[in-house]
Automatic annotation (TrEMBL):
Residues 47-496 form the Molybdopterin oxidoreductase domain. Residues 599-716 form the Molybdopterin dinucleotide-binding domain. Keywords: Metal-binding, Molybdenum, Oxidoreductase, Periplasm. This is Molybdopterin-dependent oxidoreductase. Belongs to the prokaryotic molybdopterin-containing oxidoreductase family. The keyword Isomerase does not apply. Residues 4-42 form the Molybdopterin oxidoreductase N-terminal domain. Its cofactor is Mo-bis(molybdopterin guanine dinucleotide).
Length: 741
């Protein structure tokens, strides 16, 4: 068997009798269940076998087209399709300039650092004069804009918080907003060899206050009390806790004076507007006595306040993060081992992990001469409203006019909100080129679909953040159909555009691996490439067991100031206040969500797959109900609607609707429904109930609104919806079959 890795873990594999066998890495104490999806990567009917071009584009040429996403595809030989794409790239550059090419191309693609699809695309576009890019992530794009204003550097919070061993030793109480959902911790971008977090969770001795609409956002083995909060009201709970601390004189005045800026202004707001436990109770649904008791307990113990990334992936998503830091500052424990604030425990496998901090080999992308970019979640606005202006982190920016969209390694029809609106946005460009191994909804909304290998069909180097190993990813099997790796596709386009040498530097993919490894090895003291490749892996030197940035700050904030204007934790930021945004003022405030509805939908990460990847895999399929994505409802909400377990339901609001299979579960708070992301978007256009997604993609329901004018972050975690039993003619799920060719 040969070594490889994935975003959810390292493994070895072979193909015998046409079937993929997968064995987890022997050093992995907790292999991910998602390994069970991998077999579907090989010969699933949804693989793209040959290059395909949309008929309307082929016959009528480039241009905005309402048929995009509804038209037929025609298979075209590689040489012809590459000639056409190269010619179109040339035309757009000449007639409109390079900023008319959108190469933001957000997405996780697959593990493997050389064939990293987005890096390959960016390197290619840079060699032909650049592209309009994207900034930040769907993951924590709200925090990554806010945190520099509050703590000077997003890394101070995201990478420098207490490690799990420190928490095990020192923390007495974890107040976990969003919980610490175990389902998420198997994943780290780039791969992970030793999954440490499940073990850390099993050994946790601290008591946990689980603040979440879902009881299973924490493993059942942990000593916990569930605070079943109404979604999107965490900031109100934090205010109620903060108010109690002040009212009872439990806040650490010395810490606030020495290490923080602008506390007084926040306190005036808190007290002046009466944000006490009673007030918070009315908004959150948590009894006032519980809020008061929790505040006292927090002040009496070594307490870690944690906030999952999901909380900032909402409207006003800055507020629970800023208010959480403020609450931790009032407890005076920031910089103490196991105390203070943490962000993303249970969101990603590397948060709190103690793995190496080595930067492993990566492909240089070159320099982008084009200065245009968008905050990543503004993709539909970009395509729909060229020239329109918008706010972003103190700037007023304008959307460029995009003529060509080139996407490699992501699935916007998975990750973006209000997919019916995104469909309209995708009719606007002249040309959409998509590189994909699979017929995803994004591929189906393209003009040109180029079939790509999966990691199992090529060689690469694999290692994630804080991974203990660098994996020599061997080829497990031959490429399926006529698929090629992204690098080879871009090399062929580069040749047609006269820049092949600049793009490939004369190296084959295998020569690139060797080159990147050898350059990296010089500073890392690792063995030569041939030795590494034959061994199949390299163990990386251990990382620090604890972080020092905040401890140093605590030791002396004048010698080790934060990188904020004041050098302190900015509970009030004059800079943010100066931007004058009503949806993100200068200190944490309570802002209710704009949209309300009978049920609040939580559209969180799926337990059964990574995003939309391998939705046809065995683990993902086993989670479906009546062939659709499972929606969890509280039994009382289901009974009120005449919904029984296993029923097909219609989930709907003014933006759209989808079908899903009902699961009744009292782990879901009343008034809440949970439908994870990732069922492949399956629009049914000719149904009495259209627009309808037959398969259960929650992004037909989410609003395409930013978290705020400050960050323009993704707000897709929630949607206001209602649910009814679906008794109409049941449309088939067709998304996992290839389109007719
Ligand atoms: N409603 C709602 N929406 C959300 C979220 C939410 O909480 N709620 N979460 C958001 C978050 S945090 C994220 S990160 C995004 C994730 O969104 P994406 O990262 O876009 O989702 P993936 O399904 O991982 O898409 C990766 C695609 O790359 C393809 N691929 C794999 N390997 C290769 C390769 O080698 N080359 C090429 N060219 N393609 C390849 C896969 O087949 C897949 O289609 O979703 C976001 N969307
Ligand atoms: N299995 C699996 N693991 C993954 C991924 C995947 O697709 N599949 N994706 C990975 C990626 S790219 C990312 S960015 C991370 C994302 O990490 P997160 O964004 O933290 O993950 P989610 O599962 O979306 O949300 C975590 C929990 O927050 C709770 N929650 C939602 N809204 C609220 C609220 O208003 N208040 C409170 N208190 N709780 C709320 C939900 O119950 C949910 O289960 O996960 C990573 N891990
Ligand atoms: Mo993410």
């Amino acid at each position: 068997m040969r070594p490889s890795t994935s975003h959810w873990g390292a493994f070895s594999a072979d193909v015998t009798g046409g079937r993929l066998r997968v064995v987890p890495h022997p050093a992995d104490p907790a292999p991910s269940p998602l390994l069970g999806n991998l077999a579907a990567a090989l010969d699933h009917p949804s693989r793209v076998a040959r290059p395909a071009v949309r008929r309307g584009w082929l016959e009528d040429g480039p241009g905005p087209d309402e048929r995009r996403g509804r038209d037929e595809f025609v298979e075209v030989p590689w040489d012809e399709v590459l000639d056409r794409v190269a010619a179109e790239l040339g035309r757009v550059r000449e007639e409109h300039g390079n900023q008319a090419i959108f190469g933001g191309s957000y997405g996780w693609a697959s593990a493997g650092r050389f064939h990293h699809a987005q890096s390959q695309l960016h390197r290619f576009l840079n060699t032909i004069g650049g592209y309009t890019g994207s900034r930040n992530s769907y993951s924590n794009g709200t925090s990554s804009v806010l945190l520099p204003h509050v703590v000077g550097d997003a890394h101070a919070v995201l990478r420098q918080a207490s490690t799990w061993p420190t928490i095990a030793e020192h923390t007495e109480l974890i107040v976990a907003f969003g919980g610490v959902p175990e389902k998420n911790v198997f994943v780290t971008p780039g791969g992970v060899t030793e999954h440490g977090t499940p073990g850390h969770l099993a050994r946790l001795r601290a008591r946990v206050a689980l603040v979440s609409p879902l009881r299973d956002d924490l493993p059942s083995t942990v000593d916990a009390r569930w605070y079943p909060i109404r979604p999107a009201t965490d900031t109100a709970l934090m205010m109620g806790l903060a108010h109690t601390l002040v009212a009872e004189g439990l806040h650490d005045r010395d810490f606030l004076a020495r290490y923080c800026a602008g506390y007084a202004e926040f306190e005036r707001y808190l007290l002046g507007t009466g944000k006490d436990a009673h007030w918070a109770s009315g908004i959150t649904g948590i009894p006032a006595a519980d809020i008061v008791a929790l505040a006292r307990e927090m002040a009496a113990h070594r307490t870690l306040v944690t906030v999952t990334w999901s909380l900032q992936r909402t409207e006003h998503g800055e507020q629970p993060v800023w208010a959480g830091i403020t609450l931790a500052a009032m407890l005076g424990q920031i910089g103490l081992p196991g105390g203070g604030f943490g962000h993303g425990y249970g969101s990603m496998g590397d948060v709190g992990d103690t793995g190496p901090e080595v930067r492993t080999p990566y492909l240089p992308q070159g320099v982008n001469p084009v200065r245009e970019f968008i905050p990543v979640a503004r993709i539909a606005d970009l395509l729909l409203h060229p020239g329109a202006s918008y706010d972003y982190d103190g700037e007023v920016r304008r959307y460029p006019d995009i003529r060509l969209v080139h996407w490699a390694g992501g699935n916007p029809f998975h990750h973006h909100q209000d997919l019916n609106r995104l469909r309209r946005a995708f009719t606007r460009p002249d040309t959409v080129v998509v590189h994909e191994p699979f017929w995803t909804a994004t591929a189906r909304h393209a003009d040109v679909v180029l079939p790509v290998t999966t990691t199992l069909e090529r060689e690469d180097l694999g290692s994630g953040r804080r991974d203990t190993h660098l994996i020599a990813m061997h080829r497990i099997t031959e490429p399926r159909g006529e698929s090629r790796d992204d690098h080879t596709i871009f090399a062929a386009l580069a040749e047609r555009l006269g820049v092949e040498k600049a793009f490939t530097e004369g190296r084959s993919p295998r020569e690139w691996l060797e080159h990147l490894y050898e350059e990296w090895r010089v500073s890392s003291g690792a063995p030569p490439f041939a030795e590494f490749w034959a061994a199949g892996e390299l163990r990386l030197p251990p990382g620090p067991t604890h972080h020092t940035l905040l401890a140093d700050f605590r030791a002396d904030p004048d010698v080790h100031p934060l990188k904020t204007p004041s050098g302190r934790i900015e509970i009030t930021s004059a800079v943010v206040a100066g931007f004058g945004y009503d949806d993100c003022p200068g200190h944490p405030v309570w802002l209710p969500p704009k949209e309300t509805g009978p049920l609040r939908l939580i559209a969180n990460q799926p337990r059964t797959r990574l995003h939309s990847q391998l939705d046809g895999g065995a683990v993902s399929r086993a989670g479906k109900v009546a062939g659709r994505e499972a929606i969890r409802l509280n039994p009382a909400d289901a009974a009120a609607r005449g919904i029984g377990p296993g029923d097909v339901v219609r989930v709907f609001n003014a933006r759209g609707a989808c079908l899903a299979g009902a699961v009744l579960d009292d782990a879901v708070r009343p008034g809440v429904a949970q439908l994870p992301t990732g069922a492949w978007f399956d629009p049914v256009d000719d149904h009495p109930a259209s627009p309808l997604c037959a398969h259960g993609n929650p992004n037909v329901l989410t609003a395409d609104v930013p978290s705020s004018r400050l960050s323009q972050g993704c707000a897709g975690q929630h949607a206001a919806v209602d649910v009814e039993r679906f008794d109409g003619p049941l449309p088939e799920v067709t998304a996992l079959r290839p389109p007719p060719l």
